[in-house]
Amino acid sequence: MKKKYTVTDRLITRITGWIAGMIVLALAVWGVFTLWGYYTYEQTNDAQVQEYVNPVIARAGGFIVAVKFEENEQVKKGDTLLIIDNREYALQQEQTEASIRKAEAQLRVLQSNVHTLGKTAASAKSKIAATKAEVWKQQLDYDRYQQLYKEESATKQQLEHVKATLDVNTSDYQSAEDNYGAAVSRIGDIEAEKTVVLAEIARLKALLDRHKLDVSYTVVTASYNGRMGRRTVEVGQMIDAGETLAFIVNDETDKWVVANYKETQVANMHIGDSVKVVADAYPDQAFRGTIISLSPATGSSFSLLPPDNSTGNYVKIVQRVPVRIRIDGERKTIDVLKVGMNVNVYVRKKQHRG
């Protein structure tokens, strides 16, 4: 018995055929575009957005008394991020300032002593001149009385009196010279003491600068414009110097992509080549970039345990070469790309070069 097709069956068959044809056509178009893309571009999806993410590190230890930021908050250069209790550092600074004042007072005393001893030395020097004149006069008298005594024109008692006076004046002259020498020597000793005190003042001033730095370190500020990331501290927490307190993403530097291309794909890549970047998060938006560097070695060569093919277990594996690509465009446009986002990168195989 011959099977008859109804109008409905013919309609369904026709619609099904059209749908199948459209699917085949769509697959063909997709295949053509895909093959054209592979023919035109070196592509990889082994790529991520990178940006400088720096830790916020305390340079002083102590208790945190205030936290001035929240996670994901935009901050400006110089904004206060957190404050550490600075009382201990302030006390050390005050102690050093007091030590400096004490040393400066000692220096003023020594300078006063030098001034006093200078006057003493000047007086002793004047006395030397006076006693020297007395000795010279008395020596003449002694020589004259000695001659008179020989001529029996003077008594022995007179000669002895003149000789005693000469001895006294000579002793006074020697004493004046000794006093002058002692004063000059003491001035030298005090000048040496001043050198020691000046060195101590310099040391204390350097220590004071260090204490001032310690006090300034208790206020942690943003080093540049950026966005705060995850924070790990809270008010009342005890921290140590060098401890990581939070992370900040630097907004003052470029964003870039590290694309790990196969070694068979990088032969025609050069610094300055234009790149198209499509993020998984924004598949309908294309970003432009520029190749700024190619790694001097494959990624595996920088690993903790680089492969050693000479050990006898060689298996050929296609290696990856990191290519660094700067994202071009206005900051507000490219800010939608976040650190760590996966992207697809397309580099034209043949680019015009002037």
UniProtKB/TrEMBL annotation:
Its main location: membrane. The chain crosses the membrane at residues 12-39. Residues 56-249 form the Multidrug resistance protein MdtA-like barrel-sandwich hybrid domain. It is a single-pass membrane protein. Residues 86-162 form a coiled coil. Residues 256-297 form the CusB-like beta-barrel domain. Keywords: Coiled coil, Membrane, Transmembrane, Transmembrane helix. This is HlyD family secretion protein. It is found in: Membrane. Pfam families: Beta-barrel_RND_2, BSH_RND. The keyword ATP-binding does not apply. It comes from Chitinophaga caseinilytica. PANTHER family: MEMBRANE FUSION SUBUNIT OF EMRAB-TOLC MULTIDRUG EFFLUX PUMP, TRANSPORT PROTEIN COMB.
